[in-house]
Every structure is written in structure tokens, then in C-alpha cells.
Amino acid sequence: MKSKLRIVPIGxxxxxxxxxTVIEYEDEILIVDAGIMFPENDMLGIxxxxxxxxxxxxxxxxxxxxxxxxxxxxHVGALSHLMRIVEAPIYAxxxxxxxxxxxxxxxxxxxxxxxxxxxxxxxxxxGSFTIEPFHVAHSIPDGVGYGITTPVGLIVHTGDYKFDxxxxxxxxxxxxxxAEFSSRNVLCLLADSTNADRPGWTQSESVxxxxxxxxxxxxxxxxxxxTFASLISRIQQVANAAVRYNRKLAITGxxxxxxxxxxxxxxxxxxxxxxxxxxxxxSTLPANEVAILATGSQGEPTAALxxxxxxxxxxxxxxxxxxVVLSAHPIPGxxxxxxxxxxxxxxxxxxxxHEGIANVHVSGHASREEMKLLINLVKxxxxxxxxxxxxxLQAHGKLARELGIPEERIAVVENGTIxxxxxxxxxxxxxxxxxxxxxxxxxxxxxxxxxxxxxxxxANSGFFITIVSLDERGQVIDKPxxxxxxxxxxxxxxxxxxxxxxIVTRTISASGxxxxxxxxxxEGALSRYLYxxxxxxxxxxxxxx
Amino acid sequence: MKSKLRIVPIGxxxxxxxxxTVIEYEDEILIVDAGIMFPENDMLGIxxxxxxxxxxxxxxxxxxxxxxxxxxxxHVGALSHLMRIVEAPIYAxxxxxxxxxxxxxxxxxxxxxxxxxxxxxxxxxxGSFTIEPFHVAHSIPDGVGYGITTPVGLIVHTGDYKFDxxxxxxxxxxxxxxAEFSSRNVLCLLADSTNADRPGWTQSESVxxxxxxxxxxxxxxxxxxxTFASLISRIQQVANAAVRYNRKLAITGxxxxxxxxxxxxxxxxxxxxxxxxxxxxxSTLPANEVAILATGSQGEPTAALxxxxxxxxxxxxxxxxxxVVLSAHPIPGxxxxxxxxxxxxxxxxxxxxHEGIANVHVSGHASREEMKLLINLVKxxxxxxxxxxxxxLQAHGKLARELGIPEERIAVVENGTIxxxxxxxxxxxxxxxxxxxxxxxxxxxxxxxxxxxxxxxxANSGFFITIVSLDERGQVIDKPxxxxxxxxxxxxxxxxxxxxxxIVTRTISASGxxxxxxxxxxEGALSRYLYxxxxxxxxxxxxxx
Lengths: 545, 545
Hints:
The structure is a homodimer. Chain A is an alpha/beta fold. The first copy, chain A, has helices spanning 73-76, 79-82, 94-106, 175-183, 207-218, 232-244, 254-265, 304-309, 335-347, 368-378, 390-402, 449-461, 494-511, 518-534, and strands spanning 5-9, 21-25, 28-32, 48-50, 63-67, 90-92, 115-117, 124-126, 129-136, 143-150, 153-157, 186-192, 223-226, 248-252, 276-277, 290-294, 323-326, 351-354, 382-386, 417-421, 426-431, 437-440, 443-444, 463-470, 476-485, 539-544. In chain A, the strands form 5 sheets. In chain A, strands 7-6-5-3-2-1-20-21 form an 8-stranded mixed sheet. Chain A has a 6-stranded mixed sheet with strand order 8-9-10-11-12-19. A 6-stranded parallel sheet of chain A has the order 15-14-16-13-17-18, sandwiched between helices. In chain A, strand 20 (417-421) and strand 21 (426-431) form a beta hairpin. Chain A is globular and about 90 Å long. Chain A starts with a strand and ends with a strand. Chains A and B meet through helix 9, helix 11, helix 12, strand 24 and strand 25 of A and helix 9, helix 11, helix 12, strand 23 and strand 24 of B.
């Protein structure tokens, strides 16, 4: 009996899941993408999240290749972690390779990693698999999806895509290849679900051109455009507008400088050297001759735009007459920070344009009509929605049913679910235990629910620690020492401190010679006292010496 | 020379500002509304924010009345604080009075407060002021704005409004009164700016009726509608749909039960007793005979919907076939929590409808075309946009200029700015120092930037406290004790703890007999060590006994 093909989305589906997919046949494994996730607001102190590699940990030697679809963080960001344990080569297109190199160099593992540059239209044989990258349009150039011919059939993975007929780089998606896959019978389609709740057709990147044209024509002062550092096509549009309206271009924000440099070197960004100025010159040239590209479109307080909004940018100050454009869509959870930055920019006298009030951003992902076209072009036997929260996956699954794919051939599953495929059946297997791996500082995975709960409690009410010294007879020596932070403003809370000392003294004398569990008794008494006084529940610890 | 009229928005304008306005002429003060603000995501541990009363603190005896526009928290929520220091009577309409009574009763200050029930159309004389409440449509019934005739002229304050021609309570806004004000020459209009960036005309509350009708017609199982507890008209619509489709109605969530009770008692909610069932019955009646109203539409994890999403609701479980409707608009900052709840409800098998994918919510605030109508109806000499973030105030100010009000007659100002008016001039005065007052537990205003910064640091990296006991010769007695939370998972961080102990021992022997500032030296050494090991910066304290 023939073996089954396994598809395991790892951090590639689910609540906030992006993005790694394991494709496994007998003792050969392909991995598609290795992205990070961004922490939510209540994941306190967490820098980023990487997928839980549990499923592949005892199969590392079976991994034959890592196929990358495009250069966004949620598709390549975990490579600097994954490549410490995996030895297989990475396959990616030229721009994507350039971006990955920078990342691996920073992580000091570039020299140990094999990076193979491919291009859309190639055919690559790896073990039992034949891999055909095909061009897709997305908000970064040189994106591909993959057709993967396996011993049980042809799998198509879209990566992130939109059906943009007029992309800024002039390279529309490869509809013919999708049709050709279809003619060979596609066993299973894995497709991007990000916008599965958006009706219609996502607007072309080109519509931004008109909006920028108007902004650049009207603006009397400097123009500052904030966008994602990886949105190379948007950067190209800003550069084009700057050329048309005789403005020089400065770039502020490390990641945007890096990405721009790589994209220019590799020929994915048409931006001549004499167009570029140093950010210092942005304050000395006449205001109507300056355009500035900045990071921070998601409201990050330490990125360039965030520093401009609070006046903490070292080399640039927002002035009355400046026009600021936020050319990005808020990732859910970032709205509040973005609006705060907008308010602060307005306070400083800037004009501010954003997606909510001007046509300055379009999504990089397909909307529902494009999703329908994809499914009808590819005509897969089985359908697995990927990329997106559960609400998007379910909406995408429903859409596939509306197009006539029977329910039993659609797998709407969460991260870590093992899917098994043969020519005729798709079986939804068990879900591998394991969840997110938090990265905080240099620690990877050393922070779990206990630490997170403690951080939440500390964030809400701080801590209150009392050190009591007793002599041999159990009498208090000196006054108890108290350390407290994040609970009350101590300088103005003398009465609370005195009350706490009194509680300690009283509890100790009440317990007499019975000093067993004295510190627990003290902690209980202090917690009750502090709650009565303030309605707050700080973490209370007592140390008896 | 005649005195000037002062208008001081206090917590009534600005970044997230709502909502209290001081109107002052010589030694008489009126206050319009006394609302709270909700904390943003990074205001850790804060329950709510009240306006800074600094401006009125030395003028308390001049306050003649508090005029309330409607019963929403951001207009009445601070009364339980304000009425502890102010003796003047509160004027409000009948439903609003009912809601305020509940609030003051809970704060145990109801008996000391004078509440005067007024109605739209009344004329009230208070000192030099003549006050004419006029009916407005909003997302809670019985809302009014105020025309206030002062010695320098007529001031119109809209409160929150929309121009809904077909409100659910059948009581459209009083256009005639606005026109009549206009015929008497309006000196200054203060108008709601919340939706100043939304083009067009806000849809009528009535459009929801169709959406609910379709949902109730199609749903096979139970229907759970989450909305604001104060959105009485929405509650009425759910009740109406339940009647039409033969479903009984259960209500879960304390604030919604309270508000529903008050609104029914006062006749603002048409909901017969035999329609209502206990939440326990929602699980025993046939699913298609049950509708449930729930709190938690903003993603609050401890409200009814949040508990349903995580399976922690004591008396109700979400089941496959349930239809959940989020009939509310996310307040910026809440999107992430709302989407998380949606995902979890989907995981439990519910169908979920929300504003993003179905017509189940409309705003309670006027959009730009209504704002234009208001200004052209009222024809004020001076214009002050109120309610909203700076971005909304600025947009509203621009809109007024487009309608022909000269720039010098428009005051777009932040919280605490003193505006002075006479018949011919509007002067923007200084801004009173002071900002938000944080309420945390029972503490009001005892938490400032120091505690907030500490909480942020604790949230990010926790704390690490070491207690070292030295004998008389400065030798370490026993092993140093370490208490740490929110930093690393201690059970698996033995090496770090051992390393820390070693650092302590080494630092102490290196400093020899020089024990001055020993704990500072130790704190520095430990901080450096912990950062090197983990890339994190917990709060580090050392106590030397």
C-alpha cells in the first residue's frame, strides 16, 4: 500500500498563526516558509513568537529543503532560529535571498547555511518531489507560490498573493501556470486566507500612484511617508512621485535603509543615487524639495515615525507645513498606538493622511472574488485554507463550499494539526501538543504561562516585599524593610507603609512562639490589608530572617 | 466693561478626552457632563480615568449646576467622584436620572446629592443663565443638548448626537429648536466631533432592524447578541426581533441587567415580563426559542461574552449551532481582544456576525454631512469642536472652515484650555496644567508617571531581588536569598540563579571591607549579569542585612 502524504501547518494556521508548513512523504520532508508572529498587546515583554518546532524535532535529518515564498518577516523571520537546528538548504528567489542573507548574517549563521537562488518558472527536483515556483503578486516583489508534485499528487501552495493586474513592478501573477497546474489535476490547494472576510477584489498597487500624485502636487512643505520597510513597491511609488515633483528622498529607520539598499543592489528598486539625500539634509533643503521615507507605520514608539511624533528623533523635527502619510493598514491591536501618533503629529502642526481618510494604502492579499478565481482556476480536489486567524480560515472554507468543493474535502484546521492525503481522501489527524514559543531578549522558549501570569499581575498592581528580622526569641529586630514598586507612589503613601509595619508587628506577636508558616501568615495579613486600603492586589512576599 | 464668558473643556477635548465642560460667568459656573475615560492598553492596571478637576478646585462654591446630556459612562461616569466635592444639583432627563441614581447609590452618595429631572423643551433659570435642553437622537434614549443663554450670548452644546430621522424610540432630533436658536443668534456652538473623519450621513438605528430580522429568520439555534449595556435602543431591537420570531429573551451581564431594569421601569424599554427568561432556562428551552443579550462586545475577557468564549460562563455554554452577533463598533485598542473572542467562539462551533461582515451596528454619532447640517442650521458666530481625539477635532474645525466660518472664530483646543468669549471675540487662553487622573482600585489620583513606568518595566521583565546577610566581618552568612517573578521560569533557570549567587559572592569579596554602597555595587553587577545571560532588564534590588 502506498504511503500517505502528510501536510502539517505549524504556526501556519490558527489564532494569529503564520507561517510554516511541513510537507512529508515517507522519510522526506519539505518545509514551506519559516515566519515569526508578532506578540499581542497582552503578551507582556515578548519580542516575537516563533512556531513550535516540536513536530520536526525528531525528524530533522529528513528535512530536504526549506522553500521560501517571499521576504516578509511572517514568512522568513524564524529562519535565524530554525537554521540553528536544520541543515537543509534554503530555496528562495533573488530578492528574498538577499533579505534572508542580511538576517542570517546578523544571527551569525550565514556561513553555515546553504542558500539556493531560484526563480519563478524553474523546475527543481528534490528527492521524490518536483518543485515549481510560480510568480505571484504581493506587496513585496519577487514573491512565488509553489507547485509541488509529490508521489500522491500535485500540491499547490499560494504563499501570500493578490491578483494584481497592474503591479508596480510590472510583473502580474502567473495565471497561465495556475491553469496549467489545473490541467495536471491539483490534489490539494493551500491558499492565503488573510482577507477572506473582505468582499470584492483588492485594489491594484497602482491606485496608490494617483493618491501620491495628488499629495505630492498639493503639499507645500516636506512629505514624510511611513510604510512597512519590506513594502518595496510602495517605496518605489514614493520614489517615483519624488522624481515627478522634483523632491529628493531621505530614508530614516534602520530596517528600511537595509531593505532599500538590498533591493537597489539587486535591481528590484529603481532609485538613482543622486535622488537620495542624508536625513540631515532634510532639514536644510527647501521644504518643498524634500520627501522622507520612514519606518513606524504600525505606531511603534521607537521607530522613526514614533520618534518624530514625540520629538525624540535625533535628526529631524516635525514642523508646521509637513505632510505625513501613513501608507499602511493597522495590524489589529496597533490601532490605538497609531491614532496616538497621528494625534501627536497633528499637535506638532503636520497634515496627516492615513488609510481611514485617503486612498494611501491597499492590501497585499487577495479578497473574496480573487479567492474564488483562484479556486476555479486551480480546481483542486482538496482545499486547505492557510494564513489567517480562525475567522479567516472558516470564511475561506465556506467560500470554497459555495464554489462546490464538498465539505469533506475541505480542512479548516488549527496550528499543528496533522493532515494526511492520498489520491482519494483527506484525513484530519490529531493536533500535536505545543503552542507558541515566545522570544524575549535572548531567551527562546524559556517563558511560559507562569511567567506571563506573573508579568500580568505585576503590570496591574506591582509587588510589595517585606523583610522581617527576628532574634532567637522571635522578637522583631529593627523596623521591617519594605520594597515595593508599581503598587503605590511610596513617597506619598507613608500611612500605608506604617499600617503595613503595624500589621507585621501585630501578626508576629499574635502568633507567639508558633513561627511555623509565619511568613505565609504575614503574607496573608498584608495582602488583606493592602487590598482593603487600595483595592489592589500586588504580589506580596515576606522574608523572615 | 462687561465680563467675559469662560468656556473650559476639562477632559472634554484632547487625545482621548471626554467629557466635562465648564461654563463660567463672573462668579457663576455651570458644568456640562462629568464623564470618565477608558484607559489605553499601555495604561497598566488602570481601571478608568477621570478628568483633572484642578480648574474648579478653588471655585467649588461657584458651581450652580451640573447639566447632563445623556446616560453614557463617558458623560456621567465621573459623577460618583465629582459629587464628593461638589454640592450643586444635577439636572438630567428621566432615563438619565435613573441611570445616575444607580451609580450614586453604589458610590453611597445618593442621599447627599440633589437630582433634578428635566425634559427636552423645558426652560430653566439658574443665576444669570437660562438653560433650554433640546432633544437629540443618540444611541441611548432621552438624550439632550443644551442651549444656554448667558450674559454675553447664546451657547449651544450638542452633547452626543446624530440626525436620525427614524430612531428606534420614534423621537427624532429637534431640528426646529436648533433653527429657533439660530433665529436668536448663536454666539458659540460646541459640537460632537467623534465621527468627523467619516464621510456621508450615519445610518439610522432602524437599518439594524432588517439585519436582525434576517438573522432571527435564518438562525436554527440560539441567538446571542452582545452590545453595550447602555445601548437601550439596540436592546429594544433585539427584544422586538425576539417577539417577531417567538423567542424568549435572557439577559446576562450585570450592567445590562441593571440598565434594562431601569429602562423598563421608566418606560424607555418596551419588554414585557413574560418575554424574559432566566439565563438558566436558555439551556433547557428548545434552541430556536431562545435569544440572549450579553455584555462584552468590546472583548472584555471578564464580561459575559468573554466568559462564553473561553467556556468560563457559569450558566451557559456555547454550542454548535449558536449564532453570536457582536452589535458594536470596536473602540480603538480593543480590536485584538474582540477578534480573539470571535476566533474562540468560532472554535466552539458558533456562527459569528460582527460589524466587519454584517450590517449589525451603526454609530450613535453624526457623520460629516450631519455636521454640516448642524452648523448651517445653528449658524454660530464661533465654533468649538468637542468630543473626540485631536484628529477628529481638527477635521471638524476644517469642516467648519469649509462652510465659511472664519479661522479666527474656530477654536480647536486640547483639554484644559481656557476659552474666553464676548460678543465679538473668542480668545484662546492658557492651558491649565494637569492631565489625567488615574483610578486604580479604590485609589484616585495616587498613581502617576513613576508607578506607571515601574509597572511597564515589571510587565516587560519582572523583578529580581536578592537578600544578602553579612556577619560583623562582612562575610556572607548562608546562601543569598533570591525572589524573582516575571523574569524567567525559575524552576528551569538554576544556572542563572547559581550564576547570580556567584556574582554576589565575587562582588562582595572584591569590595573587601569597603561596604559603602555595597548594595548599589551588587545591583549593578547583577543587572549586567542578567542582561548578558538573557537580554532582559528586570528590576534588580539587593538588600544587605
